[in-house]
Amino acid sequence: METKYLKINPADNVAVAIVPLEAGERISVDGVTLALCEAIPAGHKFSLKAFAGGEDVVKYGYPIGHAVQAVPAGSWMNEQRIKTNLAGLLEYTYHPVTVDLNIPNVSRTFKGYRRKNGDVGIRNEVWVIPTVGCVNGIVNRLAEGLRRETGGKGVDGIAAYTHNYGCSQLGDDHENTKKILRDMVLHPNAGAVLVVGLGCENNQPDVFRQFLGDYDESRVKFMVTQEVGDEYEEGMALLRELYRLASQDERVDVPLGELRVGLKCGGSDGFSGITANPLLGMFSDFLIAQGGTSVLTEVPEMFGAETILMNRCRTPQLFEQTVQLINDFKEYFLSHGEPVGENPSPGNKAGGISTLEDKALGCTQKCGKSYVEGVLSYGERLKVKGLNLLSAPGNDLVAATALASCGCHIVLFTTGRGTPFGTYVPTLKVSTNSALAKNKPGWIDFNAGVIVEGEPMTATLERFIDYIVRVASGEPVNNEKRDYKEVAIFKTGVTL
């Protein structure tokens, strides 16, 4: 029998339409039958009771806002009828929970590249990275020149990663640029890197070289274009040597526990918290049980669900760091005169998400139920295994770049509306519904929509694990096949 609607949590007072429902259709939930007052689009909520104005609307077992006015049972509960409960900073108290997931270590491996410093990459690419946007044209020309000469054979990719920054920046903006570029240069998915500078920029190449710390000087080379004659010939000579070294690297067996994945969602819909995000949560818990690492970011999309994460912090110190993570972003919003609940997007609302709490409670399911083991500032690199929280905004490309830059090998990206983009590590798209997977096969890599069509979540998870192992071992995802690869750096201040 086709599943037409779903009450997610026993405490909920709304249910979600799995397929479009007609006005007048009779619905039976928990032994109570009601008639729908109006048509309900797929992914959207309808009331299981009559609401008074101001009464909390509960989904996923938590309030997602309150009813704007009185509505009868069977009403469409969309963004016009629900208002967020979020407002300003909050005081938080640590109420730690016990986590016992009892997931076995199955001793799986993938084929990765073991680097000189012991780290592992899942790709072996040659990257050209500018210290400043002024040389973007040069790095693009150099990358294209190497691709033309080599045909890209012997390595997994050759790419230039342009950006607009590196000069005319002050304070945190300048530091953010330096951190992200450092993280890229040191990323193990790069077998070799050519850093290209201009010479007069704020992000001085010599200072940036010191900022890198320890690095493999045979695999990371610098060129300052104002200090050479023909920058193209000089750059190509350096790239040829870097390519020669990288093309000799070979994949070896690596324990799955060395894999690091970023957890991201974008273009979410009413199915995100039912299919794709819970799937990622189960995968995150599985990976952590193998000794691996997952990273959750999009801090503004934690608002309304943050206490769930806070109470899963392993220690009081991590709890305090998570409180600071949340409140720092709230203060960022408030300092610009913006409300902390100014979310979701128009696409989210069209897909059935009505408030930021609604979005957050679905969003945070991506990190499963494991303990929080680390909290990272923007641009900071991973230090501990397990589940980490990372400071970054919800913007898809900024957040995905931040996940790659903390050290994630791959970004797992759930979406109900669809998006083609990718950052500088494989950006694997998981659709929340089957219609999207069917309509956009060039965007979507894995379909989680089958979960509401009868496939058990455990069976979907097994297929997903197998697919991730193949991707980590070299199978390209759609953004790689189409060369949709970009970076975006978080900016908060003035430009000179």
Radius of gyration: 24 Å
Overall structural domain count: 3
Instruction: Specify the biggest β-sheet.
Output: 7 strands, parallel
Structural class: alpha/beta
- What global shape is seen? globular
Number of strand elements: 23
How does this model look, in words?
- This protein has about 500 residues and is of the alpha/beta class.
- The chain has three domains: about 5-85, Archaeosine Trna-guanine Transglycosylase, Chain: A, domain 4 (Roll); about 125-250, 3-Layer(aba) Sandwich (Rossmann fold); about 255-480.
- It is built from 13 helices and 23 strands.
- The strands form six sheets. It has a seven-stranded parallel beta sheet, with helices on both faces. It has a four-stranded antiparallel beta sheet with strand order 1-2-5-8, with no helix packed on it.
- Helix 1 packs across helix 4 and helix 2 (about 170-185) packs across helix 10 (about 395-405).
- The mean pLDDT is about 95.
Summarize the structure.
With 496 residues, the protein is an alpha/beta fold.
Walk me through the topology.
Blueprint: E1 5-6, E2 14-17, E3 26-29, E4 32-35, E5 45-47, E6 56-59, E7 62-67, E8 76-77, E9 82-83, E10 109-114, E11 120-121, E12 125-130, H1 136-150, E13 157-160, H2 171-185, E14 190-197, H3 205-211, E15 220-224, H4 231-246, E16 252-255, E17 260-265, H5 276-289, E18 293-296, H6 306-310, H7 316-335, H8 346-351, H9 356-363, E19 372-376, E20 386-390, H10 396-406, E21 410-415, E22 427-431, H11 434-439, E23 446-447, H12 457-472, H13 478-481
Parallel strand pairs: 12-13, 12-14, 14-15, 17-18, 17-21, 18-20, 19-20, 21-22, 22-23
Antiparallel strand pairs: 1-2, 2-5, 3-4, 5-8, 6-7, 7-9, 10-11, 10-16
